[in-house]
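SECTION: protein entry
WANTED: fold as tokens:
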Amino acid sequence: MRILSAVVISLVFWAAARRAALVPGRGQNLAEMALDFVRVNIAEEVLGERRARPYVPLLTTMFFAILAMNITGIVPLLNIASTSTVTVPLLLAVVAWIAFVVAGIRAHGVFGYVKTSLFPAGVPWPVYIILAPIELVSTFILRPATLTIRLMANMLAGHLLLVLFFSMTSWLFLEASGALKVVGTLTFAAGFAFTVFEIFVAVLQAYIFTLLTAVYISLSVEAH
């Protein structure tokens, strides 16, 4: 499903771009709107227009890759998001970690980046004894960990909810007797409602992951 997601999202943008024109058609227009959403509402909103430019390709790829792998959770006959197992969110979190560390080193140098990350300016020096270890864990361990857990947990929870409601619906319609069959209508309606909600969650989680990556890059580039 990961390969399928990558192929489909690549074909979608290839189809939109292969006949790119100054006056865009419907497909090209939709693709440009989607790309502009990431560029304007995530990259430039967080990093500013000039600083965002080098990171737009990374953030755009990250957003649409996560979205494509999330949305497979509600596609019939697929029915599981590739991001509901830990490997994909962890890999994406490592990429985000590398991106904001490299951005910080480019902006401040290795020593300068470590100094600005662990020893924020304007703090009395005795406080650094407590603050530096907290900043170390928060910046270099918790950031990728929370990115991983947030994406995986949300998509796994959605998958389990859909499995629960549709399995219950199947049992009530096919195995239950009497008035219990009527309850199957309610569980089916709940399953359908959660399917629609999962579409929203799929987009939201792609947005949050990409937005936080941009925020972490911005924090690395800016001095405290």
Q: What stands out?
A: The chain has a mean pLDDT of 92. DSSP finds seven helices and no strands in the chain. The chain has one domain: 2-221.
